[in-house]
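Two proteins were folded this term; both appear here.
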Amino acid sequence: MPDINALKSWLKESRHTVFLGGAGVSTASGIPDFRSAHGLYMQKKSGISYEEMLSIDYYRAHTEEFYDFLRKVMLYPDAKPNPAHYALSKLEREGLLEVVITQNIDGLHQMAGSKNVIELHGNENRYICVKCGKVYDMRYVMDCKGIPLCSCGGVLKPDVVLYGEALKERDLGRAVQYAYDADLMIVGGTSLVVYPVAGLVQYLCKEAKLVILNRDPTPYDSRAQLILREDLAEVLADTADL
């Protein structure tokens, strides 16, 4: 495939390659996307949008309902990495990929072996006591009924960025620096409509190449030197020669 060959060539030439990924990276692992026509954010429960139910205000006002929704709809404790995750891990091991910047909270990049991962939206496998700071994992929350509590009696909060919360400045700052230094950015499985994450593309220097691997058009397609609409997992697996 000529386009894949071009991408392979650019990877070998690049000194600073960044991968910016979204929900489309994990759909092959059985985790639904969010913003497509049939994504989770298009759905509602009892007249309330899923997006609203994942807000900090809903968590605070309806904590028990929030966790009930989380357990039934949002958590995938048995999800495993797919070829896309393993391909990115291999590229990192071979020195062809500097960092994975992800909007996903599933932790599958690390499970596949990636070491340098910036989780801009947090990780759904971490739950922190708002009272003492003790950390619990997803399995603990799944096994609880009602509101999960710490051994000290404090309420647990997912270590994820809920709607209405700001991204952690340290993580966003690191991502901006990697984007600024990149000479090749591969964007995969994201609509590039949610800011400030989508704005990372704007930090690329004029000489940097942009490759977009996404099923649907994005606002930054005109900036890209290469656009691939094929199956993301297959493209990345072919690129990494898996």
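Next, the second protein.
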Amino acid sequence: MTALSPNFDARAKDTQIDMLVLHYTGMQSARDALTRLCDPAAGVSAHYLIDEDGVVHRLVDEDKRAWHAGVAWWRGSIEINARSIGVELVNPGHEWGYRPFPEAQMRSLIEISRAILSRHPIPARNVVGHSDVAPTRKTDPGEFFDWARLAEAGIGLWPVGVTPHPAPPDRARAIFSGYGYEIKNFPATVRAFQRHFRPDNVTGQADPDTLGALVGLLDLIPS
């Protein structure tokens, strides 16, 4: 379905789209979310909105810059909107009754994500959640989101066979930074990573298992 949002602008010339950012809407209903994403006064949007029944709403053409990431950072860049495709998943979020993402919604997300990856050179570690790029502000798509399933479908990364990796604080920060995270507020960064890759242990502590998962991910990245 198409419900074009007016909230977009042009991407800078020759900007390469190399990120896919996933969100939850964090609103009480799909109608509320769609209304807000298409409201000029709100000043927010995404390229796609996926309802819980799997219906996909195309809001902004991929060649345009949607306004979904806000103040964000990834791998040294703050121009996240300029270089990304943003996908919103209807879910009330932590404020309104956070719940697992339904099967129909996940199937649609996998289908549309594969299509996006076929059109743009997006490396696996640049498939991220809003909380990964804005860890002090955002928690979405959160610990109920099935990142492992996406990785199995060829979308993003997931650590396999994690070996605990203890490290002193300075080394731990360097490992997180090496993967792509901003580390100004390190506990918030660790929580964002754990929501993505260790959703059963969102503590903000860079324990050996968390660092082991991160080192395992780095081993999956082509040199």
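The mean pLDDT is 96. The first strand starts at residue 8 and ends at 10. These notes refer to the second protein only.
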